[in-house]
Structure formats: structure tokens, C-alpha cells
Design brief:
44% helix
């Protein structure tokens, strides 16, 4: 069984204070968990703006992809996390990026809880 890196686990919980402590000790901001997900992707999917803001401020790259080619912006869109999606767009996330299967954030909107709230952010 694969162990989730502490940074990724803290982001999944939305624990910005723990993220800061971990990054002060181990500055590998792009460390990956299962499926190649980064802390930024986990924070975006959870909708934790404080964690997402901290990760971006510490140098997390908005367009890093997981093992399937998905980005943090795509995870935010798929989960209906409009505030995080908007913040990632403002940070320069490629809103038109498609994963290895040709799916983009626009395609992920159909799985979002409230796709209408973020539809304007997605480039079609």
C-alpha cells in the first residue's frame, strides 16, 4: 500500500498551518501522492482556499499534471470549487488544457456539483 506524503495529506485535509510547517522543513512542493496528485490538486479538489493560496505563494505550479494529465484547475472544476478554480485561473492556470484522454475542464463540468458557477472560467 502506497503511503500518502505528509504534504499531500495535509492539503487533502485543508490544513494550511500543517502545510506551512512541512514546507518549512521539506520544500518539495511538487511531491506526489497516489495517481501523481500534488498538494495543490488536493487543495483545489477539497476547495480549501487558504491551503491553495499558501501552496501557490510557496511556488506550486498551477499546470502540473497528475498521471492522467489532469491539473489542479480541472480538479477544482470537477468538484464545483468555483473560488479555487477562479484563483487558479488568476494564477495563470491553462483553462483549456486537456488530459491524456482528451478531456478538459469543460468536460469535467458535467460531474461538478454546481457547474454553472464555474462555467464562465472555462475556455471552450
Amino acid at each position: 500500500m502506497e503511503r500518502t506524503p505528509a504534504l499531500v495529506a495535509a492539503a487533502e485535509r485543508g490544513d494550511a498551518a500543517e502545510i506551512a510547517r512541512i514546507l518549512d522543513r521539506t520544500p518539495d512542493i511538487e511531491i506526489r501522492g497516489s495517481g501523481g496528485l500534488t498538494a495543490l490538486m488536493r487543495a483545489a479538489a477539497r476547495g480549501s482556499l487558504p491551503a491553495l493560496e499558501l501552496l501557490l505563494a510557496r511556488g506550486a505550479k498551477p499546470d502540473t499534471t497528475d498521471d492522467f494529465g489532469n491539473t489542479a484547475f480541472m480538479y477544482a472544476c470537477a468538484r464545483g470549487q468555483a473560488v479555487c478554480a477562479a484563483r487558479l485561473a488568476a494564477a495563470g492556470a491553462n483553462r483549456a488544457h486537456a488530459n491524456k484522454y482528451g478531456l478538459s475542464a469543460a468536460d469535467w463540468l458535467k460531474w461538478a456539483k454546481d457547474g454553472e458557477a464555474i462555467e464562465a472560467l472555462v475556455v471552450r
